[in-house]
Amino acid sequence: MYQTLFRMKRMKPIFPVLMTILLLLSVGCSKQEEITSYTVPKTDSGLAPAGSDSAMAPAKEVRMLAAILPGSPQNWFFKMTGSPEQVKAEFDRFVQFLKSVSMKAGKPEWKLPENWTQEPGSSMRFATLKVKDSDPPVELSVIPLPASSNLNVDLLSNINRWRDQVGLGNITEAQLKDASDTPALDTELFTVKAGDQPLTVVSLKGKMAANPMSRAPFASGMMGGGGRPAPGPVNPPAAAASPVKFETPKGWKPGRSGGMRKAAFNITEGDETGEVTIIDLAKDASPLLPNINRWRGQVGLKDITEAELPKQSEQLKAGDLEATYVKLIGPQEAILGAIIYRGNLAWFVKYKGSTKLAEQEEARFKQLVQSIRFK
């Protein structure tokens, strides 16, 4: 016993030294924890977590008005969804709005109805229009996506996806050609002319489950599901389920994902905010230069030519794949973007938001892109 006490007394002065060493080691380790690994599930349904309010929300009766303005290199999508009574009240204004649309420098312009307001776009949206004093809020989204060489494929795939969303069956190409040229609320498919340019319009009444905004228009080649869906959000097409793995920089918080958004992150520092998204689209309908010019337009920069692209971009390595990276600083906000082509898909990694955060997070954004791997 005396021998044991003697040994304890001799060891006692060593404890503070050991504790100091352990603290230094822990601090050193914490500084190295810059990234965390994140894998997108192979069958991402776009649903909210089990048990959440949005996952359990019952389908509601809705009216959808949606139109497609064909273009090159992009199609333009205009979509309004709300209760049947709300949308019915806006039908005539919706049609007059479509008739007022014109294209200038590759972008749409329009005359805004008196009781509508306009907000800047975000992420994939070019603009958001809202009906004043509507409760619940009724809004119209304007979204561009690359067009293919086959307009009927673009029209049919998106119209059938919209029909699926409200529980209606698919139509055929023959029915598409028989669209009425007389707009009417109860006519499911008709055309409207904006100047000399025809728009294909749907007016659909049915039931829609929660979180319809997660299902944006498809680029060409990304077909919607067929037949009448079961209650709840429609699963994304098989092409969108491609597994992707990457490392998420520390401090980035999970954002709104689902549908084409394979992942999303929010970055905040004081009043500065930004969002990072990872989206996949069909490769054949996602040419490099038009998409980069689309991003440039979103931050107020002029289009560039094919010859100018190498000087305005750089190549990053994502495993054995090449990623074309651009840094776009506009008058009010910035975009950091990378496009990776793999198989029949084009993967878009994009930061949009505060210029200050873009400069601060650029190295970590590149790290994210370079960490991307596919199975």
Gist of the model:
The protein is α+β, with helices and mostly antiparallel strands and 375 residues long. The chain has helices spanning 2-11, 14-32, 53-56, 84-99, 151-165, 173-177, 288-298, 355-371, and strands at residues 35-39, 60-69, 74-82, 102-104, 107-109, 116-120, 127-131, 139-146, 189-194, 197-208, 244-249, 253-254, 261-269, 272-282, 314-318, 321-329, 334-342, 345-353, 373-374. The termini are far apart.
Which structural class matches the secondary elements?
alpha+beta
The major pleated sheet works out as: 7 strands, antiparallel
Number of folding domains? 2
Lateral strand order in the biggest sheet: 6-7-8-3-2-10-9
Radius of gyration: 25 Å
* Helical stretch tally: 8
Report the mean per-residue pLDDT as an integer. 79
Helix fraction, binned, reads: 25-40%
The first-to-last residue Cα distance is 63 Å
List the helices and strands in order. Answer: HHEHEEHEEEEEHHEEEEEEHEEEEHE
Coarse morphology: globular
Q: How many strand segments? A: 19
- Fraction of residues in β-strands: 25-35%
Give the uncertain stretches in residue-range form: 1-56, 211-215, 219-242
Region (Disordered): 237-258
